[in-house]
Design brief:
heterodimer; A: 380 residues; mainly alpha; MetI-like fold; B: 256 residues; alpha/beta; 6-stranded mixed sheet; 4-stranded antiparallel sheet; 10 helices; 10 strands
Amino acid sequence: MSDTQSHYTSPTFAGTANGTVMSRNLTDHPAVRWARAKLFNTWLNTVVTLIFAYLIIKMVIGVVTWGVINAVWTVPGTNTQACRALSGSGACWALIHEKFRFIMFGTYPYDEHWRPALVIVIFLALYGLSSMRRLWNRNLIWIWLVGLTLIGILMWGGVFGLNFVEQERWGGLPITLILATFGIALAFPLSIVLALGRRSHMPAVKVICVTYIELIRGVPLISLLFMASVMFPLFLPEGLSIDKLLRAQVAIILFAGAYLSEVIRGGLQAIPKGQYEAADSLGLAFWQKTSFIILPQALRLVIPPLVNTFIGMFKDTSLVLIIGIFDLLNSAKTATNEPAWRGFGLEAYVFVGVIYFLFCFAMSKYSQDLEAELARGHKR
Amino acid sequence: MMATQVASQASSGSMIELRGVNKWYGEFHVLRDVNLRVGAKERVVVCGPSGSGKSTMIRCINRLEEHQAGQIVVDGVELTNDLKNIEAIRREVGMVFQQFNLFPHLTVLENLTLAPIWVLKQPKKEAEQTAMYFLERVRIPEQARKYPGQLSGGQQQRVAIARSLCMKPKIMLFDEPTSALDPEMIKEVLDVMVELAREGMTMIVVTHEMGFARTVADTVIFMDRGEIVEAAPPKEFFANPRTDRAKLFLSQILGH
């Protein structure tokens, strides 16, 4: 008797007991009840559920077979026989294995790859620090200035014993991060000025802003990039040339600024008139009113569409491939140009797709957290 | 400059002076030849049916609305398009709104200290001390760290009054301060206003609270269709309204 009791207290026995209880009441389990109520409640729903379950399982099996089971992970050198033998029934991850550094860093000199790698780390650190709300003060500006200076030194070199690397040889993820980071960081203030200008009572300011926004928004980013890379140099005096990457960067900033400004204007218009009047009646000057009262409220309101635009901009930087800049996507594409690897574009695109997704998903997740945090601050 | 000096001489002894003020919204004539003189420490209550131009008139005094004809002089400074004059006048004139208009993204304390710090250039410490003083005066110092959305309507309106007072204004304008409040909260706001009046603040109050007018006002002004129809001490106005329009209005507002 006492023996049995001691057994009862032992974890193994308790576990088994639990197990039997579970299986006996399986039909009472919340998940089962939910499935019955939502998925199998009518014969039509049952049919639809079964069809979709079949399709989903089929797809998962297909992806796993292609991506894991049949996949080739490495090949000796550029001997891609094993990959070719698959004839599409499995992924050739050997491409990523072999071309990883080319995709990440493009044509940057091979022995100097630690430099762009460090640049990526610095960018990630800057993003991480900027996401902490308690660091949102003047120091953050200094952190960024130091970070960006370091990035410049690492990429170009030519000082501190680093070999000089001309911009034409940069490539891969650092290019994407540079374009996206400067694009967002500079387009954002530009867009605030444009949005305020569009609502200005001064006719000249308003006309200029409206014209700018409508003109830039009305053309595709690709045509702006073409103009920046092909037409713009024609207008410059002989001998003077501006870095191609810089020109693309400016085009991206101008384009994104126009888009963002309309998002911000939406926020400005949602602020009740009484807020302006209260600020006016307290004697706050225009810029005080705008920066302390109106913008903080307006920007908070438009976080979802703002981040939406940021994510779009991040991915749009890949369009620079058409003017021959080797960003992440272009490097991946170029990696499969080599005869040995031709035909394995899918693997390359899946790989960079995952990288793009990680950045975009992080932005999205962060914006959700930020929204929740700001909402907690002042419940209405 | 000349005009300002002349104006200040003419208005000596009066804090606010409106002379022949006219305003139109398109075709609609909102203010017709409004003449008003408010002396220092005078308490004026403005009443009248809705759409009679009461709010528009006091909103012209701190340039939330622009008048199109006539002259408005506040404490010796004439309201013109000159931004300097407008800023000077806004620094002297506090305003309390029907909808409170607190800044929802700032705490109560931040609501109170923002303008003193940035407009009056007060050190943060001093501004916070002043803010706490006025929060105690309106009897809600314990709410200083909360956000406006966490307060009741009556509390919010008292914060709004305190926010104006932190700017140490010479004149306070109240634009239907109790109209958006639940009935049980009206008294707590009126009490604060009565106290303010007792201390000698120059006030113009647009309100339907006739009890407040009776106890506090030096002058009651009755407006209808954009003009000042009557201006009289409250006793006289309530006992013997001279015009039919005022009689009708009083019978409607006091009749139940």
